[in-house]
Amino acid sequence: MTSLARVPPGRAGRLWLRRRLAIAQRGVDLLQRKLRLLVRVHHRLVSEAERTGQEWTATCADADKWGLRACLADGRRALRPASPAEVTVRWAETMGLRYPAGATCTPPPDPPPVCSAALDEARQAAEIAIQAAVRHAVAQEAEHRVAREISVTRQRIRALRDRWIPRLIAAIEHIDLALDEAERSDAARLLRAGSGRSGDRAGTEAPARAPP
């Protein structure tokens, strides 16, 4: 925000302040519009994060169940780590804020032929759990980013509405008062000057008295 120490004097300063007051008021309107939109998006993302979190919990439990069965059927060696999955994130933007809106998770290449049906089920359950984890991570990160932007937007609104706009209004009122006082002072000075000139003319035009 521009410092009020740079306000030009006189009427130019009043115009300068009024322009900035209009900009600040317009900024509050735009930020409030942005805030309303972000709040709606945030409500949706909170619900999405809760839903994907529940899915992730359920799929993890299922993967653990089948992993235990595969371990009992084929031994712990059968549950060797697989190659990393590849995740591609899709992004969205709302009112200048960029956040993840979805992701595609490509599982690692199929391992060698499985030793049992339990191990195959465990692999499929693990892939489903990974997909659920990716969806939950995307929803959670999006919710966090929008929540942070909501907090920043509210701070900016408070700064404009509670500090900057009142300072501008007070500065405008101060300049208006100073200009009014200057106008009254000029009017009084002109009035005194006019009265003085009238008195001088009256003394000059007075008729001379004839000698006795």
Write the layout of secondary structure elements.
Elements: H1 10-74, E1 86-94, E2 97-106, H2 117-204
Antiparallel strand pairs: 1-2
Helix pairs in contact: 1-2
Textual characterization of the structure:
The structure is a single chain. The chain has 212 residues and is mostly helical. The chain is 72% helix and 9% strand. It has two helices and two strands; from the N terminus they run αββα. It has helices at residues 10-74, 117-204, and strands at residues 86-94, 97-106. The protein has a two-stranded antiparallel sheet with strand order 1-2. Helix 1 (10-74) runs antiparallel to helix 2. The longest helix is centred in the last third of the chain and has 88 residues, at 117-204.
Described by the principal axes of the CA atoms, the overall outline is rod-shaped
Unreliable spans: none
What is the typical, i.e. mean, pLDDT? 83
Oligomer: single chain
Biggest sheet architecture:
2 strands, antiparallel
Number of helices: 2
Question: Percent of residues in helical segments?
Answer: over 70%
Sheet/helix structural class: mainly alpha
What is the number of strand segments? 2
Q: Strand content of the residues, in percent?
A: 5-15%
Q: What is the spatial order of strands in the main beta sheet?
A: 1-2
Helix-strand sequence: HEEH
Distance between the termini: 83 Å
> Compute the gyration radius: what is it?
38 Å
